[in-house]
Amino acid sequence: MRLFTVVLVVLLGVIQYPLWLGKGGWLRVWDLDRQLSVQNRTNEKLVSRNGALEGEVHDLKQATIAIEERARYELGMMRSDEIFVQVSEPIQTRRPVPPLRPAPASAHLPQAGVTTVSAAPASPVQSAR
Length: 129
What we know:
This protein has 129 residues and is mostly helical. It is built from three helices and no strands. It is elongated, with a radius of gyration of 42 Å.
């Protein structure tokens, strides 16, 4: 009876091997499913890009306005009856700032009857780490 059980367990293992690790096993199916989902996402992006390109091709085949617009902006072209005018902003020059005059020495001395108060900085200095 013991030998029979061992033989059945070995046969069960032999049968399970192709199911899990063989050519069409679960691991291979899982890997192919993952690859399929990645490819589907890539295809969706390409389909939307192809739709936009298809619309642009249609516009270029049917409408002269789209061709004219592309020629103007990408190639800098213009019609023969147009006049090109370029307006540029004038360059503004700065006037030099006169140097500050030093304050008279008497301005630094405290006056009689006036109390001077020095204020602490608004934010404490933090040490850099």
